[in-house]
Write a structure and sequence with these properties.
By secondary structure, this protein is mainly alpha-helical. It has five helices and two strands, in the order H-H-H-E-E-H-H. Strands 1-2 form a two-stranded antiparallel sheet. Strand 1 (about 125) and strand 2 form a beta hairpin. Helix 1 packs antiparallel against helix 2 (about 50-85), helix 2 (about 50-85) packs antiparallel against helix 3 and helix 3 (about 95-120) packs antiparallel against helix 5. The relative contact order is 0.09.
Amino acid sequence: MERRSNVWFAGRLNFQIRILHWSVVVGVGVVVSVATAYYRHWYTTQTETANWSFLVIHMNIGVMVLILSCVMAIFRLRLLKLAQKQKIEHPNSVKIISARILHSALYGMLIVLPISGYIGIGFALPLFGVVTLPRFVSFESVQQLVDQSLDILMIAFIEPSANFHRDIGVEVILPLLLIGHIGAAFYNSKSN
C-alpha cells in the first residue's frame, strides 16, 4: 500500500511541478521581460508616472517568480528524494547529468535575479498593493555586515547587484539558460 501511495504522491508532485513551471514561464517570458522592463526602457522617461507603474509591476512579478521558483525547487528536491528512497535508478548518462546541471543553474538564476534586483533598487518595494518591503539598505544588520565584514560602502555593495541584475543576469545569462532549456526540451521530445 505504501508503494502505491508513493507512486500517487510522485505523480501528483510531478503535476504540481508542471503547473508551477508554466506559471514561471508566463511570468518570466511574457509579463516581466517584454511588457514591463523593455517598455519602461524604450518608451518612458524617469519622470513619467508610467515608468513607476511598470517598475512596480516588474518588481511584483519578480517577487512572484522568486516565490514560485523556490516552491518549484523544493518540489523538485522532494521528488528526487522520493526517487532515491524508492531506489529508482536513473542512468547516469550525459543527457541526465546535463539536464540536472541546466535545471540547477536555471533555478539558481530565477532565485538570484529577483534578490539582486531587490538589493539593487535602493528604495522600498510595494508588494501587491498590500505591504511595503523596506529598502534593503534600511536593515541595520545588513549595514553592519557590509560596513564591518566587507569593509565597503553600502553604495559599493548595491551598484554591482543592480548592474548584475540589469546587464549580466537578464541580458546574457538568463537568455542563454532559457535557450538551452528550450533546446533540450525539444531535443528530448524528439528523441522519445
